[in-house]
Each structure stands twice: as C-alpha cells, then as structure tokens.
Amino acid sequence: MGKAAQPPTVLLIEPRADDLERTRMLLGEAGFRVVPVTRFDAAVPLFEVIRPDAVLLAVQAPDYGAVQVARRLRQISRGTVPLLYMVDPHDVGAYQHCLEKGQCVDVVPRSGSGSELAVKLHAQLRLKAAVLRAASGEEEDTALALHDPVTGLYNKPFLLSLLGLEVRRCERYGGSFSVISAEVGGWSAMRKEYGRGMAERLLVYSAVVLGQTVREADAVARVGESQFALMLPGTPAEAVPVMLSRVAARFESARFQVDGRVVRTTLELGAVSFPDTVGTPQQLLSAAQQDMRRTREFRRMAGSMTRLSV
C-alpha cells in the first residue's frame, strides 16, 4: 500500500494513447492508482503536485525524452521514488540507450500481459518500504547500523534482513528474486604491497562502480573483506546473465589508479535465484558465493588447459 494505507500511486507517462489506456487498465487491475499523462513536459509539474509512489516512462526514439525527464525526477525526489522505463521488446536501440544513459533506472517491456511490470513495481516499492522501516527502527534487529563503515554500502546483517523479507513475500505472494555474489580480485595482494589504506580505497572504488551499475530497486552490500552481494528483487534466473554481463562490463571499463598508474582488477561473480534455490537468507548468500567460487575455478582450469595446449 502507498501513503496512508492507500493504493500506491503510479505516474504513467506514455505518448501513445492506446498503450496508455492498456497499461492504465493493467495497473488498475493489479491494485495501483494510476495518473496517466501523454506529454513529457507535463511530467515534472504533475509529479510535484501528486508526489507518486512510482513513475513509469515510455522510451522511444528519436528524442528519448523519457531519459531526460527521469533525470529531473530523480533530482527532485533525491532518488526516493522508483522509476521504470517501458521499452518496446524489439527496440534494441531504445533498450541500449536506457542501459547506457538511463542512470540505472530499471527497464520493463512496453507491451505484454503487464504481470512483469506489476511484479517489478511491487518489488521496488516493498524494498523502499523495508529500508525506510529498518532505518526508523520498525523492523526487529535492523534498527542498528545499516551501513558498512568503509564503503557506505549496506552491511551483511541488513542485507540478510532484506533477503528474509523478500523470501517471506515471495512465498506468500509469488514472484522471484536473485542474489549475486561479487569478489574483488587481487585485493589481498594489493593490501600486502600498498597497505590496508590503499586496499580500502579499492573497495570504496568498487562499491561506487557497483552502485552506478545496478538498478534503483537493487540492494548492494559489503559482506566480507573483499566481497559484495547484490539482491535483485523481481529478477528471475533467466534475467541474471544480462545483469552479470552488465556488472562485469562496467567493472572492466573502470580504472583504479595507484601512484599515478592504472591498476587493473577483476570481479568474480556468481548468482542464485529464488525459488530455483531455496533456504534461509544465509544459505542463499552462501549458495551465490559457492557459485562464484565454482565459476572462478572453472575459469582457472580453462586457462590452464589453454596454456597446456599452446
């Protein structure tokens, strides 16, 4: 539910009248209160008046006006209101534009049954509500420190609390989510060579890169000395490879400098998805870490075989 136990309000910005009406009806049937508008120049004034719980923006060439509007809405809301882009499933250009210029706003199909759209909206709103409740002390055992003191990301106890909430909601209402484990390669060697202070700078740098790569609804936490974990609400197993590729590519293109020279690091990745994998929050996190270790070992074996064949 949205403000004051009312249905959550969604601001829907869709220039195509037929699609506007179809999406409005689908969201209405899913329990949302929808405020529709066809013009992007009306989105900001309307947003400031109604203060919606979430915003949907249709993206299309050639101007991609939705992306500019989304940036302005994020500034106004300071990132507290979930935003989602709607893209035609076969519009590769628009999808790529959202990935590159969309500032990590999530992407959903512009057509279809609407079930994925409703699930992602509910997932984003639930996560936002969980974080707000935890910060105010309403959730048991999460009123203490929520953040890792080095990176500023969520800490492991709070991530496990969020995973527990998401497991219970998916068991009750259906849906899926995924957990990604990530470890910075070469961190121990850097700490040994340059000292802990420089190694922690690498962790902060890695945290920034991860934060710039994931979507607004995703939660990123530091769960070990050089390990991170990501919770992806509303993300089934078949969508994980795209997210893994996106994170790996973003990290590969990043540059960390030490004493004026670029230091190249790697990011080991692994993932599991609920309900394909079930268990306690700690078991889900451990399963993702185990998948990460298997992937790393497989890559090492493949590299050894390549060297032997040469």
From TrEMBL:
SUPFAM superfamilies: CheY-like, Nucleotide cyclase. One of its GO terms (molecular function) is cyclic-guanylate-specific phosphodiesterase activity. It comes from Myxococcus llanfairpwllgwyngyllgogerychwyrndrobwllllantysiliogogogochensis. Signal peptide: none annotated. InterPro entries: CheY-like_superfamily, Cyclic-di-GMP_PDE-like, GGDEF_dom, Nucleotide_cyclase, Rev_trsase/Diguanyl_cyclase, Sig_transdc_resp-reg_receiver. Residues 9-125 form the Response regulatory domain. This is Diguanylate cyclase. It comes from the Bacteria. Residues 175-310 form the GGDEF domain. GO terms for biological process: phosphorelay signal transduction system.
